[in-house]
Design a protein that fits this description.
Shape: globular
Number of strands: 9
Strand content: 15-25%
Radius of gyration: 17 Å
Number of helices: 8
Distance between the termini: 19 Å
Helix content: 40-55%
Strand order of the largest sheet: 4-5-9-6-7-8
């Protein structure tokens, strides 16, 4: 992946992270949004401007919020992925997870997805598929039997048949979130479900 392509993907992932934050908080000031995203205020301002141009957010004296179009866009995203940014998985620092719906058949052994997560800033990633009532390291082992402690920490994600859980960790929350979403978006692209890169 070229530096330019990585930069463009990072901006797209950060726009998505900003939309998730606004969906959770309803309304945020610029400074608070920058803090939640773990980025500088100047960069956050660029993200906000791009999202306003896309018609997905609005800004007034109270702060920044999703537009109706932005809410519909988020609803469309949730048909394909669900972020779990408050998850704590074992001892992994700043662990984050993203559930990718109905994409298990596109994962071979998870190396491609792991590599995408690392390119996007994560220190590491686990790619887990769910099928026949069990969690799996694809092509390797049944986590439900071999790593029950790991399964206990992700069970509340409530996957359905053929779903994929991408777990990342890193030195900062921002790196972990970028890694999880970057890998999730690449998996969605591979599945051909929807181009949700804004």
């Amino acid at each position: 992946m070229s530096i330019e392509l990585l930069k463009n993907l990072t901006v797209k992932v950060d726009k998505l992270r900003a939309l998730f934050a606004l969906n959770s908080y309803s309304i945020l000031g610029r400074k608070k949004l920058a803090s939640v995203l773990g980025v500088g205020e100047g960069y956050a301002r660029n993200i906000i401007s791009a999202l306003k141009k896309d018609g997905l957010v609005k800004e007034d004296r109270h702060g920044i919020a999703l537009t109706e179009e932005g809410k519909m866009f988020i609803a469309k995203i949730f048909e394909h992925i669900t972020p779990y940014f408050n998850i704590q998985v074992l001892e992994f620092p700043n662990s984050k997870a993203v559930l990718v719906k109905n994409a298990g058949e596109y994962v071979k052994i998870g190396l491609e997805e792991r590599d995408w997560a690392i390119k996007m800033g994560a220190a590491g990633a686990l790619i887990i598929t769910y099928s026949r009532g069990n969690f799996w390291f694809p092509g390797l082992s049944n986590l439900s039997h071999e790593y029950p402690q790991l399964v206990m920490s992700i069970k509340h994600v409530n996957p359905e048949e053929n779903d994929v859980i991408i777990i990342t960790w890193g030195s900062t929350q921002k790196d972990s979130e970028r890694g999880a979403l970057g890998a999730a978006l690449e998996l969605i692209r591979k599945a051909g479900n929807l181009n949700i890169l804004v």
